[in-house]
Amino acid sequence: MRKLLIAGNWKMNTGLEETSFLVSSIDEYKSTHDNKNVEVLVCPPYVNLITAVDTAAGSPVKVGAQNCYYEDKGAFTGEISANMLREIGCKYVIIGHSERREIFKEDDELINKKIVAVMNHKLTPILCIGEKLEERQAGNTNNILESQLEKALQNVEISDYSKFVIAYEPVWAIGTGISATTEQANETHNWIRNYLIGKLGAEAEDIRILYGGSMNEMNALELLKLENVDGGLIGGASLKASSFNQIIEIANSVA
Ligand code: PGA
Questions:
Q1: What is the mean pLDDT of the chain?
Q2: Which residue's alpha carbon is nearest to atom 7 within ligand 1?
Q3: The pLDDT of residue 6 is above 90
Q4: 181 — alpha (psi -120 to 50), left (phi > 0) or beta?
Q5: What pLDDT shows up at residue 145?
């Protein structure tokens, strides 16, 4: 059975104090309402990762990063390697978020290199894929997802499929308050599952496929109930402890 993963993508939000406060509040909730079938992850900005790791020490809450570079070290001003993230206690790295693809012009080739680096350092990647509104409207959603998956997975050897995570995030749903409908999410997550099994074999059943894009405490139940929605990558609603904890509670109720 796949464990649900409830992951907070804090983006470029939260200072030091807020990081400690948020992690403590989530820790407290998770520790007192722990369900072994639900994993909880927070992904703060780089500079607050150590604080988050220290605050979460000994609790079931895990810490991940929002990005990394694919080289281990060297003259890459401003970059952070997967190795550095592993060393400070990160367990996950979000790769290929649509904001990185759009604003920072990350292409599929770079994303593929980052996935390989993250896996080489025994971290779990959360590979983000998703179509833009005009692509969905033109009926191209599956073609876009197939192309993103195909390129991101090139030469990637997965030995433990439970340590590979995909986040389906329709770009039009991110930060807009308009989440995909249950029907859209169901159809697309089922398609992704079938694609992965066709490409990688039956073991791809173990890959978790998160939904991301305006998930909150109001819509989480109907999304998390879907067979192939294995958790959420949550932006806005992960910045409020009460909302995020309610989503954990909902995950606990369906896991
Ligand atoms: P959102 O962001 O929940 O604020 O839509 C999700 C994401 O970008 O991962």
A1: 98
A2: 235
A3: yes
A4: beta
A5: 98
| Beta-bridge partners for 39 | 5
Question: What is the rounded distance in angstroms from the CA atom of residue 151 to the CA atom of residue 154?
Answer: 5
Atom number, ligand 1, closest to the C-alpha of residue 174 = 5
Separation CA 44–CA 59 (nearest Å) = 17
Q: Does 22 sit in the ligand 1 pocket, CB within 6 Å? A: no
Asked whether 64 and 89 are in contact (CB, 8 A), the reply is no
What is the per-residue pLDDT for 21? Answer: 98
- Please determine, for residue 1, whether its predicted confidence score (pLDDT) is greater than 90: no
Any ligand 1 atom below 6 A from CB of 235: yes
Structural element, H or E, at residue 12 = none
Structural tokens at position 107: 């292409």
In the chain, pLDDT over 90 holds for what percent of residues? Answer: 100
User: What are the tens digits of pLDDT across the range 149-189?
Assistant: 999 999 999 999 999 999 999 999 999 999 999 999 999 99
Q: Report CA-CA distances (Å) from 232 to 88, 128, 210.
A: 24, 12, 5
Quick one: which of 53, 94, 49, 34 has its CA closest to 248?
A: 34
Which of 66, 94, 215 should be mutated for ligand 1, with most atoms under 8 A from CB?
215
